[in-house]
Design goal:
22-stranded parallel β-sheet; mainly beta; 5-stranded antiparallel β-sheet; 1% helix
Length: 370
């Protein structure tokens, strides 16, 4: 396009100036949508010498790179559940612009696994007193609060405030209400509490909460009762106990692989410990309760899969307290689980209901989701 600029009335002063007002070329390559991946590389082409800017208000946009003179690329991370609108603008050397857009629909899916959440309460979850969930990778000796953010919690309930988070508690992960539920009314967050990135949603299908069945068997050993600082070691094998009671600073050492069937209750108190020295330990609890107060479950391997406890259909309550660290997988779908007194759990807790308080925490083992 030619524009004429006259200086005075003299024809000799006339000069022609060429202004380029042609919009620069710009394309966006097809994006993957819908997707279950929260991160995606977005690419396209542009005019040589143009500069590309990318915006997406619901995600994190990285720096634009230029693999070649006519192509651009950018990483979009932390996509929000639902629709994410991406706008791309190219600006050429004459300051002309062209814009294009694309939408990425992010749909989160949950892994199909018994232990697919840090916490799952079939009828609901309550967290208070500065309690929190996050996740860990491998078995680090130390964990920084909130360093890894896959400490998901969930419920099958559709009731208002089925997930109730208060008193400065934090979820470094996602929070899920039951299939077909409303996360806005089903999740209540008050008192300075928070959910990382306000990430909430409804399950795509109800979580199966069928109780495990004890396969039976095991050498009958009667009641296992230790007190007054007594120690006992159990070697690899399959054992049946009518009940387990550790008190008075006693210690039970387990050298796996071991399967234990308990037809009654389990109580560990007054500084007593059940210690997994080596190998794996699988416990079927057929009684009504597990009560660990002032005692400890110690998994020396620091691998939660090496201490798995299944509460069968008769289990009514699980009480874990006392400010100790435990590496454990607990599935008791008919039991009310209480975690208190600064108890730190590495693994996963699944119950009928879950109540976490007094600065207690659950660190989800990310290996369980694979």
């Amino acid at each position: 396009v030619t524009a004429t600029n006259e200086v005075g009335s003299s024809a000799s002063a006339q000069r022609n100036v060429i202004y380029d007002i042609t919009p620069p070329a710009l394309t966006i390559s097809p994006v993957t949508s819908p997707t279950s991946l929260s991160n995606q590389a977005v690419t396209g082409t542009m005019e040589t010498g143009a500069t590309v800017t990318v915006t997406c208000p619901t995600a994190t946009v990285g720096s634009v790179t230029y693999p070649t003179a006519t192509t651009w690329s950018v990483n979009i991370t932390n996509l929000k559940q639902g629709d994410n609108a991406i706008t791309v603008t190219a600006t050429d050397l004459s300051n002309n612009t062209t814009s294009a857009s694309a939408d990425i629909i992010y749909t989160v899916t949950q892994p199909e696994s018994t232990f697919d959440f840090a916490l799952f309460g079939n009828t609901g979850i309550t967290m208070t007193g500065g309690s929190y969930t996050d996740s860990f990778i491998s078995t680090p000796p130390n964990i920084t609060r909130g360093q890894y953010k896959h400490g998901d919690i969930g419920t099958n309930s559709l009731k208002p405030c089925a997930i109730n988070i208060s008193g400065g508690s934090q979820i470094f992960g996602k929070a899920w209400v039951g299939h077909g539920g409303n996360a806005v009314t089903g999740i209540c967050v008050t008192g300075g509490s928070s959910i990382y990135n306000n990430s909430t949603g409804a399950l795509t299908a109800a979580k199966d909460m069928t109780p495990k069945t004890d396969p039976g068997g095991g050498k009958s050993m009667g009641a296992l009762s230790l007190s007054n600082g007594v120690t006992k070691t159990i070697s690899a094998g399959n054992y049946l106990y009518s009940s387990v009671n550790l008190c008075g600073g006693s210690t039970l050492y387990l050298n796996g692989p071991i399967t234990i069937h308990v037809n009654g209750n389990m109580t560990i108190s007054n500084g007593s410990k059940m210690v997994v020295n080596s190998g794996s330990v699988l416990v079927y609890m057929n009684g009504q309760k597990i009560d660990i107060t002032g005692g400890a479950l110690v998994n020396s391997t620091q691998d939660p899969k090496n201490l798995t406890i299944y509460g069968t259909a008769g289990m009514q309550s699980v009480n874990l307290s006392g400010g100790t660290n435990q590496h454990i997988l607990l599935y008791a779908p008919t039991a009310a689980i209480t975690l208190s007194g600064g108890q730190n759990t590495y693994g996963s807790l699944i119950g009928s209901s879950v109540n976490v308080s007094n600065g207690s925490s659950v660190h989800y083992d990310e290996v369980l989701a694979h």
